[in-house]
Amino acid sequence: MKVSEMSIEELKDLVAAVVEQKLAEILGDPDWGMELKEEVKERLRVTSKAEAEGRRGIPAAEVARKIGIDW
């Protein structure tokens, strides 16, 4: 598809995707190459297992409400 054939929304989406990709290339991941602490690894294992079993954590909106953030 040519740019001239795109709708305004399609063009906006394309520009946003390109900008996001370029920023990721430039900035990179600041945590790249760092090691996770063993307790963080264990917490991730527990969370992944719970999710695989269909159990969910606390919804983000509920957490936000509890700490006083308008969601």
Mean pLDDT: 92
Radius of gyration based on Cα positions: 20 Å
Tally of helical runs: 3
Order of helices and strands: HHH
Low-confidence stretches: none
Q: What helical percentage do the residues reach?
A: 55-70%
Domain tally: 2
Largest sheet: none
Shape: extended
Number of strands: 0
Report the sheet-strand fraction.
Answer: under 5%
CA-to-CA gap between the ends?
38 Å
| Class computed from helices, strands and strand pairing | mainly alpha
Overview of this protein structure:
The protein is mainly α and 71 residues long. It has 2 domains: 1-32; 35-71, no CATH class. It contains 3 helices and no strands. It is extended, with a radius of gyration of 20 Å. The two termini are 38 Å apart. The mean pLDDT is 92.
Helix and strand topology:
Elements: H1 8-27, H2 38-52, H3 60-66
Could you list some keywords that capture this structure?
71 residues; mainly alpha; 2 domains; 3 helices
Concise overview:
With 71 residues, the protein is mainly α. It has helices at residues 8-27, 38-52, 60-66. Helix content is 59%, strand content 0%.
